């Protein structure tokens, strides 16, 4: 991919991340599971979110930290993202920072964060596939931390 194409893909990635606050997170360990979650981006390749302490998603990530995500704000005919991630459960300070980032991005998540015991998780994205049918990006264009334009 040419540098100008990489920049366009990176710009679309940043745009979709900023405009959207929820994702689907697919996990597997002893049980295959797909869950919705609110997220905040720390940068285009690092997302943070909270999950139920006793939930299937967190249990799966503890056993197998590799997962897949989809961020599709308005269905498949609008730009959407697919990603391969590695999850890390955060410590207490990281949990507080995650909650603050989530509330800054989307204040409506407050009742969810306060509803029950949650753990913060940071997702390191190793691969994004950015799909924008109106731009002719089907299949989607791939972007990794190593291919980000300078």
From the structure above, extract its key features.
150 residues, alpha+beta, Pnp Oxidase, Chain A, 7 strands, Split_barrel_FMN-bd
Molecular structure report:
With 150 residues, the chain is an alpha+beta fold. It has one domain: Electron Transport, Fmn-binding Protein, Chain A (Pnp Oxidase, Chain A). Helices cover 30% and strands 41% of the residues. Strand 4 and strand 5 form a beta hairpin.
**What do we call the CATH topology?**
Pnp Oxidase, Chain A
What is the helix fraction of residues, given as a range? 25-40%
- The N- and C-terminal alpha carbons lie at a distance of 14 Å
How many E-type strands? 7
Strand order of the largest sheet: 1-2-3-6-5-4
For the biggest sheet, the summary is: 6 strands, antiparallel, barrel
Supply the number of structural domains: 1
Kindly estimate the percentage of residues that lie in beta strands according to DSSP: 35-45%
Secondary-structure content class: alpha+beta
- Number of helix segments? 4
**What's the shape?**
globular
CATH architecture: Roll
Secondary structure blueprint with pairings:
Elements: H1 3-19, E1 22-27, E2 33-43, E3 46-52, H2 56-63, E4 66-71, E5 80-89, H3 92-105, H4 110-115, E6 118-132, E7 137-143
Antiparallel strand pairs: 1-2, 1-4, 2-3, 3-6, 4-5, 5-6, 6-7
